[in-house]
Hints:
Strand order of the largest sheet of chain A: 2-12-3-11-10-1-7-4
Radius of gyration of chain A: 22 Å
Mean pLDDT of chain A: 89
Number of helices of chain A: 12
Largest sheet of chain B: 2 strands, antiparallel
Shape of chain A: globular
Number of strands of chain A: 12
Radius of gyration of chain B: 30 Å
Structural class of chain A: alpha/beta
Largest interface: A-B, 43 and 50 residues
Mean pLDDT of chain B: 88
Largest sheet of chain A: 8 strands, mixed
Distance between the termini of chain B: 56 Å
Distance between the termini of chain A: 39 Å
Oligomer: heterodimer
Structural class of chain B: mainly alpha
Amino acid sequence: MKPNISRRTFFRGATLGTGTVLLAPLLSQLSAASSAPRPKRFVFVLEGNGFSPTQAQPVSIPRAKHPYGHTNIDTLEDVALAGQELSEATSPLKAFQDRLTIVQGMSGRICGGGHSNNYGALGAYSGKAGAAGETIDMALARALPGIFPQIGLGISDRAEHTVIYNTTAAGPDQPAPTRCRPDLAYEEIFGSAAEGAAKEKFMRRGNLLDFMADDVKRVSSRMNGEERAKLGEYLGAFENLRNRQSRLNDISKTLREQGPVVGDKYKSEVEADRLDAMFDIGAASLICGLTNVVTLASGCGDPYFSVRWKGLGIPLDKHSIGHGKGLDEKTAEQLTTMIRRFHMEQIARLATKLQSVREGDGTMLDNTCIIYMSDSAESHHSRCFDWPMLVLGDLGGRLKTRGRFLCMPKYGAKGHKTTANFFLTLLEAAGVPRKSFGVADPALKDIDTSGPISELLA
Amino acid sequence: MKKSVFILTLLASALTALAAGPPETATLQKFLGEFCTKCHGEEKQKGDIRLDDLAGDMAKEGTRWSVVLDQIRDGEMPPKKEKQPSASQKLAVTGWIAKQMGGHAARKPSQGNLVPHELLFAAASAASAKAPEARLWRLSPEAYMGWVEDVGRGGVKGLVQPFTANPERGIKDFAALARVDEPTTEVLLRNADAIVEKQTAHEILDGKVKTKNDTVREFTDLMDPALTPTRAQIEKAIQKQFQLAVARKAEADEIERLYALYEKCATGGDRFGALRTVLTAVLLRTDAVFRSEMGGADGMLSPREAAAAISSALMFKRDGKLLEAVEKGEFTTREKIAEHVRRILDDPKAKKPRILGFFREYFEYGNATEVFKDRPKDVMHEPKQHVADTDRLVLHILEQDKDVFRQLLTTPLAFVNVKSQTNKQTRQEELAQAVTPNKQNNKGQAAIETLYGLEEWTAEQPITQKENTRIGILMQPSWLIAWSENFNNDIVRRGRFIRERLLGGTVPDLPIGVAAMVPNEFHRTLRDRVSSVTRAEACWKCHNRMDDLGLPFEQFEHYGRLVAEEQVLDRESTAANVDKKGKPLGDVFKGVPVVTTGAITGTGDAKLDGPVKSPQELITRIAGSDRARQVFIRHVIRYFMGRNESLADAATLQAADAAYVNSGGSFKELLVSLLTSDSFLKRAPATVAQATGTKP
C-alpha cells in the first residue's frame, strides 16, 4: 500500500530531521489533501531591457493613445482575458490564458529608471541606491521559509560571471546572490544528490561548516556577555548553514529523483542554454520543496543586461537592440519579440512542470504565483511611468488573477497604482500584510497610494 | 507619607543593588523627591512618565534613566516655572546616572553626547578612570577589502562586500554595532572560496603545474598531480595561510585540527579540494573576521593586539613594520608605541585613509553626492568634485597641523575645481582644472569655479576667499549640499549638526506621529516657511536647539552658491502672466533679500551664547570656544575607539585635549595622545569562562 501522505507533510518531516524515516515515498506517489494550510509559492521572472506596454497588451484590446506611449486612461480598465488574442510576444502563455492576468499602468517613478532599476525594481526604491532595502522576493521569503529562504538564479551578459548581485536584497546593504552558472548552482543546491566530484565538493562544504562551527564555538566559549553574543551570531550562521546542508543530505534521495538532470546546457557558453538550465533548477527547487521563492533574473541589473542571444540566432547585443538596431531583415521590435517569446516559453514550461505535480486536491501550480516583469520597467531606457506585469497563478485562490486584463488609471490620476501597491498585494495574499513597502513616490502625494490593489485580491 | 516611603524603599533597593555609596543615595533620593516625583509619581504621571517605580537595573531600565539624564542635563526639567536644582546638584545626579549607565546606554554613535560634557572635563572625573571592557571588533567594510588585498595579493574578482556600514549619519564603525549574521556569513564563505581560487589558480600543462600571477607558491606547489603531499607540506601551506590571514604562526593544536579537516576531506580522493577547504577555513577564522582586544594579565592589550589596533586605527591594510616590531619584541612600552604612531603619521608614503575618513564622517560633506538634485540651468552641479575639493582642503590643513580645529572652521582658503595630474614633460605632479563644461552638452551652465566668485580657473591654489564670503568647511559647497534637501536648504538639520557636533548638545528624535511638513507656500522665504511650523510651542521645545543655528546659512542656496536674494513666487505677477486667452504662462519669481541672523543659545557658556548676524560670525565664535574644541576631541575619540566615550575615559579626553592645546592645535599630537592612552591600550580583565582551545 502506498503511503497516503501529502508533499507538505512529507517535507515537514524531512526538515525536522526525522525525514529519513519518511523518505521512502516518491513525490509522484503523494496524494490526498491534509488539513495543513495550502502552501504558497512565488516565482519572479525578471528580464532586462524593459517590457513595453505594447508587447504586454493583448492585440484585441485597444490601448489609449499617449505621445510617449504611457498609459492614458482616467479610470480602471478591467476586461476578461478569455477570448482575447494575446500579443505575439506573450502568446506562448496561451495555454495558461485562463490563469493569467496582465496588469498595465502601474508606475514606479521612485526607482528612477535608466538601463536598469537594479534592486529598486523589486524593492520599490531608487535603483541607484544599491541594495538600499528589502526586496519583495525576500520579504515573501521571510514569510514562507524553506531550506533555502529564496533561490536566486539567472544569467549575466558574460558567461564567466559565477554570481552577481543585482535584483534581490534581504535588507539595507544585504544583497542576495543571483547564481549565474548552472553547474555551480546545481552543485550548491542539489550537490547532496550528485555523484563524483560534485558530491565530494558538497561533502567537503559540510565538513568545512562543521569545522567552522566548532572553531567559532571554541573561541566564543572564552567570551562573556556582549562579545559572546557577537560570536554567537557568527556561530549560529555556520550552524544554520550546516543544518541546511544536512537537510539537503537527508532528502538527497528525493533530490536525486526529482532534481534536474545535468546535461551539456549546464556548462554551456550559450546564454539561452544557461537560462534554460536555470529554469530547470528553479522548477526542481520548488518541486523538491527546497524553497518557496525563486527569482529568475535574465540579464538584469546594470551592467549585466546586454546579453547576446546567440542561442536564438541573435548575435547582436541587447543594448544595441534597445537602441533600435535591427539585424538582417529583422527590426529591433521583432528581435525583442523573439527574445521575449523565449522567456514566455520558459515560463510556460515551468508552469507545465508545476502543473504535473499533484498537491492536495490540485497541483503545485494552483498554489503558485509566477510574476513576469522587467527590471527596466517599460523600456530600454526606462522612465517607470508604466511597469507592465504578467501574473500567472492565483496562489490557491488568494489572488483574483484568473484570466484578466487590468489597466490602472494613468500616472497621477485618482486610483493610480504603483509597483509598491502590487508588492503589498502579494504580501497580503501571502498572509503577511504590510502598510507600506519601499519608498513612496513623493510626486503622488495628492492621491492615495497606500495599501494593496484590492481588485487583485480575492 | 506612604508614597514617599514606597519611593524611598524602591530607590534605596535600586541603589543598593548598584552598590552606590550612601552619600550618592541620599543625594539622589533628595533630588528625585524634591524635583521629579511630584509630577511623575504614583498619583500623577504627567506626560505618562512615572519615576517613583524606577528600578536600579540599568540593563533593564536604561531607557528611562537616560530620559531622566537628558531632561536634567539639557535643563528641560524641572519646568522653568518650578523650583530649579543648583548646578552642583544637577551635576551630582547626572554624574551618578552616567556612571551607572556605563556601557548600557548610548551604544549608537548618535548618542555619544548623552554623557554631560561638563562631567567629562571636570578635574574630579579624571581620577575615576577605569579600563574599558575587553571586546571584539569586526573588520569594517573598508578594512575587509584591505584584508582581501593582503590575503589575495591584490584584488579578487567576483568578490562582494559582506559587511554593512552603519546606515545612520555620522560615525560609521562602532565595535558594538558591527555584527556578522547569516547572509553576511554566506558572502564571507563565497568570498573565501574566490580568494582561495585565486591563491591556487593554475593549469596543468604537459603534466606540470603552470601558475598564474599572484598565486601562492606554497599552495600551487601542492597542486602537482604526480605529488602526494606530505604532512609537512600541508603544514607549511597552513602556516602560510595563517601568516596571510591573521599575520601570525599557527599553533600546534590549530595545525592539528586543520590537518584533521584535510584528512577528512581527502577521504574521497580529491586532495586539492581538501587543501582548498583547509585554506578556506583559515580565512573564515574568527580572528580573521574580528579583531580582538582582550588584553593580557597585566590589563594591557598584547603587543600583537596593540599593533593591530594601531594599524586599524589609521589604515585599511596591515603595517608591516608594526608586525616586525611585534616579532622582535619591541612593541611593549608606551614610548615604543608612540614612536611607531609618529612614524606612521610622519611617513607621507604610508596610506592613512582612516584619518581623512574621520573628517568625512565628522563633517559628512561626502554626503553631497547622495542628495539628488535637478541640474540647475545656469551653473554646473558637480557634487563629486566639491567633495574632492573639500578633501583636499582638509588634507592641506592637516599638513600644516596648526590650530587644526579652528582652521577647519574658519580658514579663508579653498581649493576650487582641482585635480592632480602628471605633467608629461616634467613628470611632476601639478594641479589642473578638474571639471570643465562639456562643449557639446553645455547649455550655458557656468563652470563650478564661479561658485567661488572666480571668473577664470587658476592654478594658484588654494585660493584665499574674500572676506564675508565663505570660511571653513561648513561654507564649502560640498557641506552645504550634503546638508540640504532636493529642492531647498535644510535649515533644521544644519542646526542639528551644529548643536550636536560642534556644541556637544543633544536633540531628541522626532516624536512618533509628528508629520513634519514645511508648507508649500512658495511666495514666502524658506526661513519663513520653516519658522511658521517649528515655532509652535510643542515643536519649539526641540527646534529651539536647532533652527537658530541653521538659519544663518540661508546666506547660501541649496547648490552652495552665495546669494544676496532668495527667489520667491511673485503671486501677483504670476496671476497676471497669462496669454490673450487667459491661459497661465507659468510662475514668476522675485528676489527677496536673504536674512542671515540666528543665535547660539543654551550652551551653558556665556561667551558662546548670544545672537549672530551671519554664518561667518556664528562659526568664528564657535571656533574660538573651548567647549567646541573639546566636543571635536570627543568625536575624534569616538571614531578612533569605535565606541562612545564614558566617564571612565575622562582622563584620556582631558590628556588628549591638553596635548592638542599644548602643541598649538596639532592633530598628530592629539592622535599620539589618544592612541597611547589607557582608554586605547588597556582592557579590564575579561572574566571569561574557562576553556581550552585556540587563543582568539
